[in-house]
Amino acid sequence: MENNSNISQELLETIERYLNNTMQQNERSLFEKKLLTNTELKQKVEDVKIMLFGIETSALKEKLDIFHKELITDKSLYKKPKKVKNLLFTKYAIAASIVILLGFGGWWVTNQKSSNEKLFAKYFKPDPGLATTMSSTINFKFYDAMVNYKHRDYNIAIAKWEALLQNKPENDTLNYFLGVAYMANKNDFNSIEHLNAVTKIKNSVFKSEAFYYLGLAYLKNEKTEKAIDFFKQSDLEKSKQILDELN
């Protein structure tokens, strides 16, 4: 539920009139037309409805508590509360509890957007790429895709690099940049596949970077222990910083 502090006093009073059925017919008609097209207004109405419901429930409980105390104090008037009153209070109490639990649940889920996801968002940045200065035919195709990659046209870059990879399946440069491009394109499965290939290539200059991005991929997917294992195999300072934050 949104914070009601961003609702003006005038709008709050208007919504209250609408919910309490105290609007004039012409005002109500205009307001309901706005609700059909204004999703933000519709959400504010729902927020105020929940707020008012909570207040009414709280007021009802206070009245019942006072009523019960008065009955107990005046024993001559004491009668066992009718079951219908208990049922009424129970109904409102349960509903209020649901509202509270839903609100808390939303807060909990938001805050559980786990520390892992927050760390991923903090540290993930696509590799800046290589300088596009080579001129041979093979290199031209690679660096042509690199231009797309640098412009964040990841789908185009991926298609071009995948075509080149068919002839050089163990090329660490192609696998590495494909892995990063797939991750930037939110395809963790393919990203992990290509980055893993880099880590198995002996003496690859991209090995530490590949371990780093693999750690981020598993961190994002809540596989913390596996992520830690990959970060430990990376010599990058960023990997050490993440390990410090995870401990």
From TrEMBL:
Transmembrane portions of the chain: 89-109
Keyword Transmembrane helix: yes
UniProt cross-references to InterPro entries, sorted A to Z: TPR-like_helical_dom_sf, TPR_rpt
Record's protein name: Uncharacterized protein
Sorted UniProt keywords: Membrane, Transmembrane, Transmembrane helix
Record PROSITE patterns: TPR
